[in-house]
Amino acid sequence: MSLKKSLLLAALLGTSLLANAHDYRVGELHIEHLWSREMPPVAPTAAAYFVVHNQGQEADRLLGVQTPVAGKAELHEHVHADGVMKMQQVQDVVVPAGGEVRFEPMGYHVMLFNVQQQARDGERFPLTLTFEKAGAIEVEVAVQTEAPAATAEPATRDAAHQH
Ligand SMILES: [Cu+2]
Fold first, then answer.
1. Which residues pair with 6 in a beta bridge?
2. Mean pLDDT, range 133-159, rounded to an integer
3. Is the pTM of this model over 0.90?
């Protein structure tokens, strides 16, 4: 194996280890693949992504999000309107019983406004998720320059989801 390939492999492994380093459980919910794309230092906004699995018999709802790194955090979705992709705030997001909800680029996301200091690649920041039934949980979001492999495309995504 060439040095270049070794370095590339190390970089890939590093990224996937980082992305999978932390997952969280609260009640019947399992939260994983928490990440945020690194933004330019002067950018006022950022977005956070994750997957919530619901292993329970009843649907739950994500009611809100909070973080000390932003002046305001909102739940957003992307919608097609007149042929244009736009994002808009949603009041809550349902996590179906026995199912999952994915927060990902061009889908649901947590939008952070008035970010005072943008986190750099490899850093983490705390985020508190409040669910209607499961309650609140503080998680850590990993900042990366690229989407984690597990969320990048459906083929790899399925391979990463053995549970
Ligand atoms: Cu948004």
1. none
2. 77
3. no
